[in-house]
Design brief:
Blueprint (H helix, E strand, L loop, with lengths): L22 H4 L3 H9 L9 H9 L3 H7 L3 H10 L12 H5 E2 L2 E4 L10 E3 L6 H8 E8 L2 E10 H7 L22 H7 E10 L2 E8 L14 E7 L7 E11 L18 E4 L8 E7 L5 E8 L13 H4 E9 L1
Parallel strand pairs: 2-3
Antiparallel strand pairs: 1-2, 4-5, 6-7, 7-11, 8-9, 8-12, 9-10, 12-13
């Protein structure tokens, strides 16, 4: 179904380009189309984090995942980033059409073309085609190392049979995840703080069950508890970060100058799926102490380069003061 970015997707609708657009499906599937529009798949190409990274490293490999249709790839080559089809990101036919057939899990008719039943459509294995891949060491053609760059499917698989019933962020067609601030906020609850002494404070909160480590997915993502003596967190004196830490790696064959590929995981402090209670005791010799829980889509302390405003790459999920 998917090539992990090696090639664009051929659907069989290439001779009827109007069928490649999500707008073609709108008339019959208005509710589903609305769900897709609200989800991250619709913004896979246009979201600021991807576009900022893509501006630094314009690789066809990136296009083949974030705008995966062959028609989108051709539009990118011809028109740069201006083509309307590109801004549909991962649209309906990217997942639902192959060899001119509309793939579905259940019987039914569709005016868009012949239907083919795909029994495991939408299962976790299906998602792994885009969300499980290794570091590239060559781009023409694409060749991968043996070290995972995105490891979400393997984390889910290794989390144990307890999580076999979990579907991959399926809420209709409104795909979510760590890029969805509301979803991330809902992951954590029951926050409490307590001053144990004039110099020590305690922070506790819970996390809902998950099917993989948190954070997962792209490099440079993190979740962190931070403490500072000023409400603007100009000088952070305490930070507990959950993230993946990589060696800098070496530049592989035809990798762009200044970019490091073929990295190796040196440490993964991510919250494990079974972790429910997070309990931290911190130094707090002054009063008040300001604490917050943040989600970083691009944590520069992990080695990434980003010109995005902090508000575009970081979300405050919770904050309070300890007196």
């Amino acid at each position: 179904m998917f090539s992990q970015g090696r090639t664009p997707i051929i659907t069989g609708f290439e001779s009827t380009p109007e069928k490649l657009s999500a707008s073609y499906c709108l008339e019959c599937h208005r509710e589903t189309h609305g769900e897709w529009e609200r989800g991250m798949h619709a913004r896979a190409w246009s979201n600021a984090v991807f576009q900022e990274a893509f501006a630094q490293e314009r690789r066809e490999w990136c296009v083949n995942c974030h705008a995966p249709l062959a028609a989108q790839n051709a539009a990118w080559h011809a028109e740069g980033s201006r083509a309307a089809i590109l801004h549909e990101g991962i649209n309906c036919v990217a997942c639902h059409v192959r060899e001119g057939h509309i793939l579905t899990r259940r019987e039914g008719a569709c005016d868009g073309g012949p239907v083919r039943i795909h029994a495991d459509f939408g299962e976790a294995d299906f998602c792994a085609g885009c969300h499980q891949f290794n570091f590239p060491v060559a781009f023409q053609p694409i060749r991968y190392s043996d070290a995972p760059m995105q490891n979400t499917y393997a984390e889910w698989r290794d989390s144990g049979s307890k999580y076999e019933g979990y579907q991959c962020h399926y809420a209709g067609h409104e795909r979510g995840g760590s890029t969805n601030s509301a979803r991330m906020s809902d992951t954590f609850y029951d926050f409490s703080v307590e001053r144990l002494s004039p110099a020590v404070a305690h922070i506790a909160f819970h996390a809902v069950e998950r099917g993989h480590l948190l954070p997962t997915g792209d490099l440079y993502r993190s979740v962190a508890v931070e403490a500072a003596y000023d409400p603007d967190f100009v000088e952070i004196y305490y930070r507990r970060r959950w993230a993946r830490f990589f060696t800098s790696g070496q530049r592989g064959q035809d990798a762009p100058a200044g970019m490091h590929w073929n990295r190796r995981l040196s440490r993964n402090s991510g919250l494990r799926p079974e972790t429910k209670l997070i309990s931290l005791t911190i130094d707090a010799p002054r009063s008040p102490v300001y604490v917050r829980l943040v989600r970083n889509l691009h944590d520069q302390d992990l080695g990434g380069l980003s010109r995005l405003r902090k508000s575009e790459r970081m979300t405050v999920l919770w904050s309070t003061a300890i007196y």
